[in-house]
Amino acid sequence: MTQPSVGLDFARIGIPGLRLEALFEGVPLALAVFDAELRLVSANARYGELTGVAAKPSTKMSIYDAFPNALADLTDQIDTALRGPAAITTVPVPFQHRSGRRLIETTFATLSEEGGRGLLFAGNDVSEREDLRETLSRNVAQLESIFDVIPDSVRVFDTEGRTVRSNTQALQDHPSGQPSTLRELWQLDRPRTVDGTSLFMHEHPTARALRGERVRGETLAVRRGADDMPLIIEVNSNPLYDEQGKIRGAVTVERDVTVKTQLAKALEEEARRTAELYERVSTEAERLERMVQERTQELLALQEARSRERRLAAVGQLAAGVMHDVNNALNPIMAAAYLLEANAENPTAVRDYAVRIAKAAETGAATAARVGRFIRQEPLQAEREEPVDLSLVCDEVVAMTRPLWAERARGGVIHFERELAEGAVARGIAGELREALLNLVQNALDAMAGGGTLGLRTTVTESEVRLEVRDSGIGMSAEVRERAFEPFFTTKGRAGTGLGLAEVYGIVKRHRGHAEIESTPGIGTTIRLIFPRASQQQPPEVTEAPRQRVARKVLLVEDHPDSREFMQALLESDGHKVDTATCVQEGRALLEQADPPYEVLVSDIGLPDGSGWDLISFARERWPAMRAGAVTGWEPRAGAAAVGDFILRKPVRTSELLAQVAAEG
Ligand code: ADP
Ligand code: MG
Questions:
Q1: Domains, the chain
Q2: Helices 390-401 and 430-447 meet at what angle, rounded to 10?
Q3: Burial state string for 454-490 with b = 16 or more CB within 10 A and e = fewer than 16
Q4: Is residue 110 scored above 90 in pLDDT?
Q5: How far is the centre of ligand 2, averaged over its atoms, from the C-alpha of 45 (Å)?
Q6: Nearest one of 68, 77, 6 to 35, comparing CA atoms
Q7: Beta strand 577-581 with 553-557: parallel, antiparallel or unpaired?
């Protein structure tokens, strides 16, 4: 380090042993001393460093050259300084230093009180301090703008409750006048808690913060602005501490949450209403469901009442129909019987009336048989069943009826579509199934006056066989379709009997099947009969024994004299030997006495002293070879076939009676 040569009289300072050189170098200032001619006589190292001037007293550099890198003219300052110590000024002057621009506080002072003895230059580098100040003020400005843009109201209070700062939002809170203290703020706001209790001033969040409490998220209602509408604000207040931890004031931040609160309230209300609505809707749904249930019950009840009515009506219709047909049959019989009596002597007349009686009786019997086939719905008896090929039945019925189709369809052309499957085999009675199909074909033809298409189809599934009769005729209305199976229901007036479908229904039921109608008015009708399919391992078809003329020894038990005599005459006319009895007891006696035993027993069921079944089972047990059977007007009871070899239904058909009696045991 260069020791500056000092030409000053430091002894004047009067501190013995004080090394002024050390002071000169030690202070953090650039120092330079100029003599009375304003020539540089001495300078410290900091001066050299600042100005780049090497302080060499020999060069006698002028003061005006001693600051070559000052970026301002120092002349004025030097001149002012020369006027005396009272005029000392300190001026910040920028210097172009090799490290960059520096700001130097420059001071020129006269070295003697009288002046004119020289000047001292002191340069204090304040660049860093200035930078700091600048940064600080920039930061403060930033903070202030932040303070102002905050959408909440921010107020700073001192310990006395005076407002020391308010941001822009806070200034807008009270358009009628700014509160300068907490008391004024409290008076203007008239704050209340949300449940409506007014607040004392010492309860104000700011007052509490000034006592050291941190107040967080307190909701208050205040009155501000012209309309005096209460606002909801959320208040936070913090005490402000100094470095010693002493409370210096408080900062209070208020946020207007009126809209938010209203929204929340509206939302809550909405949720409540939705819940209420949901509740109402579900009660309504329940009510509707109950109503539907009630209505359904009512409807069901109504339906039942209707169907009961229907059934009653059907029974009435059945009775009326039977009566009508029976009367129709009886009238000619009675007339003929009368005439017969009157003309008993005339053999031609007798024969003629006999024929008429037989014909009328036949008609009556046929009706009864048809009604019977409808009523009889108990399953078939196993022995009488046989496998029946429905496709074969179809072909038979077609062959039988085809010549009459055109006539039945009143002159139209009938196209026939045949679609018959192999193996459409059901178990049952071929004759009955044939009759059922015949009825369906007749109905189809009736429906196609003027021609159309008749289709017969059989199909086979694993468990069922189906028989379909399809026509392109007039079809049925819903009402007709519903009633079509009722006995004596007809839409054909005098031309119809109303027994066809009733009979079909009875037959199908007896065959453990069911029937379906599909029909569209004007388009046509399909009637489908569905039967369980006969399993393949059925015993082979039992061929009916042909009727033979063999004389049999017969016991006939019947209490009704007409019937008994009629049957006896019939059997005897066929060459049999016939004994008769009128009750169980008599029948039994005859059976036991007979030698050789009777070959055939024919017994009525309803006898005065008991049931014909008892007689039949007795006989069969005693004489197993004997054929024993019943004649009855009643429906055979279930299992009856196991007791008898045959059952004949009244009115007895001549041919059936003769066939059964002649049959081989
Ligand atoms: P009927 O033929 O004597 O009238 P049914 O018992 O056979 O008696 O039929 C009852 C009623 O059902 C018929 O009068 C008719 O109205 C209706 N019907 C039956 N089959 C058909 C069909 N194929 N097309 C249209 N209507 C039908
Ligand atoms: Mg018919």
A1: 10-131 (3.30.450.20), 150-256 (3.30.450.20), 380-532 (3.30.565.10), 553-662 (3.40.50.2300)
A2: 50
A3: bbbbbbbeeeebbbbbbbbbbbbeeebbebbbbbbbb
A4: no
A5: 143
A6: 6
A7: parallel
DSSP string, 123-149: EEE-HHHHHHHHHHHHHHHHHHHHHHH
Query: Ligand 1: does its nearest atom lie under 6 Å from the Cβ of 525?
Result: yes
Dihedral pair phi/psi, residue 104, rounded to 5°: -120, 130
pLDDT(665) > 70: no
Task: Give the distance (Å) from ligand 1 centre to CA of residue 10.
Answer: 154
> Are 253 and 161 a contacting pair, CB within 8 Å?
no
196 backbone φψ class: left, alpha, beta (φ>0; ψ -120 to 50): left
The maximal CA–CA distance of the chain, rounded, in angstroms, is 203
Q: What does the DSSP 8-state code read for residue 195?
A: T
Helices 584-593 and 612-622: angle between axes, nearest 10 degrees = 20
Mean pLDDT of 175-193: 90
Preceding omega of 175 cis (within 30 degrees of 0) = no
Q: What is the pLDDT of residue 326?
A: 74
Burial of 8: CB neighbours in 10 Å, binned 0-12, 13-18, 19+: middle
DSSP string, 482-501: HHTTSTT--SSGGG--S-HH
Beta-carbon contacts of 392 under 8 Å, excluding residues fewer than 6 positions away, are: none
* Max avg pLDDT among 176-185, 205-214, 305-314: 205-214
| Predicted local confidence at residue 236, as pLDDT | 95
Q: Which two tokens stand for residue 74?
A: 């120092």
Give CA–CA dist 510/531, Å, rounded: 10
User: What global pTM score does this model have?
Assistant: 0.40
Q: How far is ligand 2, taken at its centre, from the CA of residue 309, in Å?
A: 24
**598, two tokens:** 């009777």
Burial class of residue 396 in the structure, from the number of CB atoms within 10 Å of its CB (0-12 exposed, 13-18 middle, 19+ buried): middle
C-beta of residue 451 within 8 angstroms of C-beta of residue 409:
yes
**CB of 489 sitting under 6 A from ligand 1:** yes
What number of other Cβ atoms are within 10 A of residue 550's Cβ? Answer: 13
Give the amino acid at 151.
P
If DSSP codes are grouped into helix, strand and coil, which group holds residue 215?
A: strand
Structure tokens at 338: 């009368």
Mutate to test the pocket of ligand 1, among 446, 468, 503 (most ligand atoms within 8 A of CB): 446
Q: For residues 607, 611, 615 and 618, what is the CA-based torsion angle, rounded to 10 degrees? A: -160
Rounded to the nearest angstrom, the distance between the alpha carbon of 623 and the centre of ligand 2 is: 47
- The closest ligand to the CA of 497 turns out to be 1
Q: Where are the beta strands (DSSP E) in 508-662?
A: 514-520, 524-532, 553-557, 577-581, 600-604, 606-607, 610-611, 627-632, 646-649
Query: Could you identify the residue written with the tokens 């809209």?
Result: 259
